[in-house]
């Protein structure tokens, strides 16, 4: 009743006025008339209410609209699921495999999971969900294998390379990895635009603090050094932050803290559209004398700029490839097409090999 009284007392705006302005744009005499549900203004108001309800009510039950009073009991449980709990659940023999995923990348997550499953390592995978939609979707299909570390990010902007959303997404990575090694676990990080062809754990020789792969397309000899490569033209090496393995050592923790520091010192701006990789390379270079680093073999872990563009090299190194990274190309459609062209888009015919099954 109070609301109805208010509507009758308040001057009603002309339907052609600016709804965000207190000043009418045409004859003010129309604004002095009370609303009747059968009048033109009343019908317009009812129509507007129906549109608003039709748009927003369906979202209330969606994981993209995570109000606490709309959550199911299982969703509420996953909102409170901590990283420590998730790592303890997923880790096997003190090791966990992690990836960070926003909702738009779920098809790539599934593709990567199929390849990981073929190497019998899927049980130790933990998906770090960057939005609630991903958290709920993964845990609905595969309970316990996804965790969200607040705050949740905007799933619609986090995947656009070069955007501030992408920087916000990738710059959280060293903090996640640091937390895991501080919990006492070894951790392998992968981007999900990757495909495993062999078991990468066989290549983690020795007891080094940190393992990583080169991002350069220049061909190295098969017996190349495993030391950190020398700086390039920009004063730093060109190591890919897409595949990292860390042991829970003081050296690995130091490297992650330095990476976090570098990202804080070089934030994203419109003039300098930063991402996390330069910061990782600066951190590697500045801690190289304190951290035991290991460069993985190029033939086993080639960059996408080499694997997809040098057919001669691919033939010469056939049988040696372990993880293929679909980088040196931007965009979902382009990445998907290239994987399909090379027989690496597995979700079309082998979705049931993924723990998530076939995603709708």
TrEMBL record:
Where are the membrane-spanning stretches? 43-61, 95-114
Q: Which InterPro entries match?
A: Nucl-diP-sugar_transferase, Nucleotide-diphossugar_trans, UDP-D-xylose:L-fucose_XylT
What top-tier enzyme class does this entry carry?
A: transferase
Membrane topology classification: Single-pass type II membrane protein
- What does the UniProt keyword field contain? Cell wall biogenesis/degradation, Glycosyltransferase, Golgi apparatus, Membrane, Signal-anchor, Transferase, Transmembrane, Transmembrane helix
Give the enzyme's EC designation: 2.4.2.-
Residue numbers spanned by region Disordered: 1-20
Query: Nucleotide-diphospho-sugar transferase domain: which residues?
Result: 121-339
| Localization annotation | Golgi apparatus membrane
The UniProt entry lists the main location of this chain as: Golgi
Q: Which domain of life is it from?
A: Eukaryota
The UniProt family comment states:
Belongs to the glycosyltransferase 77 family.
Query: Know the name of this protein?
Result: Glycosyltransferase
Biological source species:
Brassica rapa subsp. trilocularis
Gene it is expressed from? A03p033640.1_BraROA
């Amino acid at each position: 009743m109070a609301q109805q009284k208010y509507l009758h007392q308040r001057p009603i705006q002309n339907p052609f006025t600016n709804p965000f302005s207190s000043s009418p744009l045409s004859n003010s005499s129309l604004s002095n008339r009370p609303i009747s549900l059968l009048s033109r203004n009343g019908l317009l108001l009812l129509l507007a209410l129906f549109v608003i309800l039709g748009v927003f009510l369906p979202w209330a039950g969606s994981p993209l609209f995570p109000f606490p009073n709309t959550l199911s009991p299982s969703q509420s449980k996953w909102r409170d699921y901590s990283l420590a709990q998730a790592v303890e659940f997923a880790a096997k023999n003190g090791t966990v495999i992690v990836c960070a995923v926003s909702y738009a990348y779920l098809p790539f997550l599934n593709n990567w999971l199929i390849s990981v499953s073929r190497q019998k390592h899927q049980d130790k995978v933990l998906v770090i969900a960057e939005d609630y939609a991903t958290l709920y979707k993964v845990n609905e299909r595969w309970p316990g294998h996804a965790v969200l570390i607040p705050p949740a990010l905007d799933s619609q902007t986090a995947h656009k390379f070069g955007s501030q959303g992408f920087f916000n997404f990738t710059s959280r990575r060293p903090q996640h990895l640091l937390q895991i090694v501080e919990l006492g676990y070894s951790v392998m990080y992968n981007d999900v635009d990757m495909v495993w062809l062999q078991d990468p754990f066989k290549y983690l020789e020795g007891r080094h603090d940190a393992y990583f792969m080169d991002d350069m397309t220049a061909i190295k000899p098969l017996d190349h050094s495993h030391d950190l490569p020398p700086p390039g033209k920009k004063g730093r090496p060109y190591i890919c932050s897409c595949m990292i393995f860390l042991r829970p050592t003081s050296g690995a923790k130091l490297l992650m803290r330095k990476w976090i520091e570098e990202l804080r010192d070089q934030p994203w701006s419109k003039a300098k559209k930063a991402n996390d990789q330069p910061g990782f390379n600066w951190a590697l270079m500045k801690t190289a004398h304190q951290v035991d680093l290991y460069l993985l073999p190029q033939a086993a872990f080639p960059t996408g700029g080499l694997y997809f563009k040098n057919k001669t090299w691919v033939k010469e190194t056939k049988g040696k490839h372990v993880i293929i990274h679909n980088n040196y190309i931007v965009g979902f459609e382009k990445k998907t097409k290239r994987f399909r062209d090379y027989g690496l888009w597995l979700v079309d015919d082998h979705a049931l090999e993924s723990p998530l099954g076939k995603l709708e």
